[in-house]
Amino acid sequence: CTPRCSIRSRVCGGSRAPGSRTGSSDPYCIVKIDNEPIVRTATVWKTLSPFWGEEYEVRLQPSFHCVSFYVMDEDALSRDDVIGKVSITRDTLAEHPKGFSGWLSLSEVDPDEEVQGEIHLRVEVLPGEAARRLCCTVLEARDLAQKDRNGASDPFVRVRYNGKTQESVVKKSCYPRWNETFEFEVAEGAAGQLCVEVWDWDLVSRNDFLGKVVLDVPALRALQPGEGWFRLQPDNSKPREAEGSLGALQLQVRLRDETVLPSSCYQPLVQLLCQEVRAGPQGGVSLITLLDETTTAECRQEVALSLVKLFLGQGLAKELLDLLFELELAKPCEPNTLFRSNSLASKSMESFLKVAGMQYLHAVLAPTINRVFEEKKYVELDPSKVEIKDVGCSGLHRVQTEGEVIEQSCQHLQSYLGELLAAMGRSAPGCPAVVRGAFRQLFRRVGQRFPEQQHQNVKFIAVTSFLCLRFFSPAIMTPKLFHLREKHADARTSRTLLLLAKAVQIVGNMEAAAGRAKEAWLAPLQPALQRGVARMKAFIAELVDVEEPGALALQTLVIREGPLFMHKTKAKGPLLSSSSKKLHFSLTSEALSFAKTPGSKQSGSIALSRIRAAEKVEEKSFGSSHVMQIVYVDEAGRPDTAYLQCKCVNELNQWLSALRKACANNPELLGSYHPGVFRGDKWSCCHQRDRAGLGCGAARHGLTLRDWSDPLEPDVEAQRLFCHLHGLRGAMRCVGAQLCRTLSCPPRHPETGTWLQKAW
């Protein structure tokens, strides 16, 4: 069995955030898991009520303690200001199995509470001649907070008991090793607490608090000796500002704990589902029918995604969607509202496009989206929103009329729309075969359901209702959420994108005049929209004109690629044979390689099977907080490390996530690593002098980000569907004895045959 833990969070927006001297802020959010930055949202400029709408899912170790959301104010001239934070503990999330959704007040960020890391202690009470002796051996600490400008700390430990204090210091390390024993006299029957505090020593300013551990002495007598790693706790003794004075943050957060069993445990369920999909509606009442009729809006998106991923893994995604189309079309429906609701069929097709067609979407939209961002042209067709501005060359300024602004805007929008429709028209051969096959089935089913001459456009609209309204248009409006851009659009660009998305929606509806009745100011765009309808119709006809498609290869040759800066060290190796400069890296299912430029001859590579760890590097090592290290063995079996710098925390974690997923099945992954570099004769992190010595930090192989290009995990999706179906047992009396037997009990162990209760 494989325990899994994940957090899905959606940072919606903020309100009443205090402004800077200019009366506004440039807010962004940083999401941290146990004080480790995982995600940074884009900055929303000049606002006190930002909207981000960014969603992330992080898979992590089940032993995490809390997730925190920091609201920051970006400043180009100085360090970014911290506005406030929201912290949610693991226990709190566990109390909301369906997730938490709502507004939470920001709290003040107190440096004495921003602690992290663990300390290794051995504590025992020993007999003595006059009195007992309390012996506390402080061995080491790891992952301490970085308090100094060099990205490190000068930690000293302060051990206090019964009014007596002893100290010891280690310079320039977040992974200090003290290995010192402190002794105190303990009277017979004495109570009290042993307090172990960690501080950052500073010569000029006051010392910074790094955390503490408090142990009850009477309880220690039962532990002879007691040794282990203890999580450092904050100091909560200071008064706080009134709640709500710093603003609030709207969040959706859900914790998912699950146990994934071996594949054989899910075979009865998977085989049953596959049989139903192959049989189609004529097979009678089935689990798919049950899901279609009983799944609520609250969990429909999640069920749809699990179904799509499970059947993609079985090579039956097209057949699943075809069955859902038939079930939807069998219900009473009107041609003009077909597939416009959030039914299971609609949600499944939407999820399918995001999983199987994201690369296709990028290829079609990216050139036009990038052009809109780069040109930043003013585009507005609504007279009530038109801004009159001065135009002309120096000395010949004149004021544009409203008509001139609209005419110019119409030309810009027509240019963007024409470019986009042309890209779509050329894209049919590049659309994944399984996506074309799904659209072909949809096109055919709708044509059979509405064969009348007056409904000839309905089968085209059915395709565009997904392709344009649910896929292309949302990506045009918010390209950041579809990974088309790294930042949100400014106000001017956002308005242009909104108008372009609206135009694509109207074209997708196949009736250019439809927009005129609702928004008369779109009239100047009508000729272009009518031409667009004809081009869209021709494109759909070509898109669905395909024979039976081959199987989908979700895991394409290149998993991730992009430019990274390589830091050269004294070590030798395939990734360190070039000068220190920016190179183009490519991660495939076989190796991590680099070249001088995209498409040029490969200069070096590391086979994935030889990678032992992919981890972050301390900021002080290279003067940057966005450096990762790849620990591997060369062809001769010698250990080596490559250091690669990313441009931001998002890129860093995306690369780490991709590498960890690609190497997840390596049998010799490291359990610990050195967060620093080996310079001179010692490691910069823990000051060890043995280069091959055991690492001082715990490896984070289990920490990854979910991405649309992730490898399929059919067992995970089967487990989630099993849990959902198990909750519907009350509705299963109508589905037959075979289905009830499959789902009324948890799966059995493949060897012992015993019920595995924890799976559900």
UniProtKB/TrEMBL annotation:
<feature type="domain" description="PH">
    <location>
        <begin position="557"/>
        <end position="664"/>
    </location>
</feature>
<keyword id="KW-0863">Zinc-finger</keyword>
<dbReference type="InterPro" id="IPR001562">
    <property type="entry name" value="Znf_Btk_motif"/>
</dbReference>
<dbReference type="InterPro" id="IPR039360">
    <property type="entry name" value="Ras_GTPase"/>
</dbReference>
<keyword id="KW-0862">Zinc</keyword>
<dbReference type="InterPro" id="IPR000008">
    <property type="entry name" value="C2_dom"/>
</dbReference>
<dbReference type="InterPro" id="IPR035892">
    <property type="entry name" value="C2_domain_sf"/>
</dbReference>
<protein>
    <submittedName>
        <fullName>Ras GTPase-activating protein 4-like</fullName>
    </submittedName>
</protein>
<dbReference type="GO" id="GO:0005096">
    <property type="term" value="F:GTPase activator activity"/>
</dbReference>
<dbReference type="Pfam" id="PF00169">
    <property type="entry name" value="PH"/>
</dbReference>
<dbReference type="InterPro" id="IPR001936">
    <property type="entry name" value="RasGAP_dom"/>
</dbReference>
<dbReference type="InterPro" id="IPR011993">
    <property type="entry name" value="PH-like_dom_sf"/>
</dbReference>
<feature type="domain" description="Ras-GAP">
    <location>
        <begin position="299"/>
        <end position="509"/>
    </location>
</feature>
<keyword id="KW-0479">Metal-binding</keyword>
<dbReference type="Pfam" id="PF00779">
    <property type="entry name" value="BTK"/>
</dbReference>
<keyword id="KW-0343">GTPase activation</keyword>
<dbReference type="InterPro" id="IPR001849">
    <property type="entry name" value="PH_domain"/>
</dbReference>
<dbReference type="Pfam" id="PF00616">
    <property type="entry name" value="RasGAP"/>
</dbReference>
<dbReference type="GO" id="GO:0035556">
    <property type="term" value="P:intracellular signal transduction"/>
</dbReference>
<dbReference type="InterPro" id="IPR023152">
    <property type="entry name" value="RasGAP_CS"/>
</dbReference>
<dbReference type="Pfam" id="PF00168">
    <property type="entry name" value="C2"/>
</dbReference>
<feature type="domain" description="C2">
    <location>
        <begin position="115"/>
        <end position="230"/>
    </location>
</feature>
<keyword id="KW-0677">Repeat</keyword>
<feature type="domain" description="C2">
    <location>
        <begin position="1"/>
        <end position="104"/>
    </location>
</feature>
<dbReference type="InterPro" id="IPR008936">
    <property type="entry name" value="Rho_GTPase_activation_prot"/>
</dbReference>
<dbReference type="GO" id="GO:0008270">
    <property type="term" value="F:zinc ion binding"/>
</dbReference>
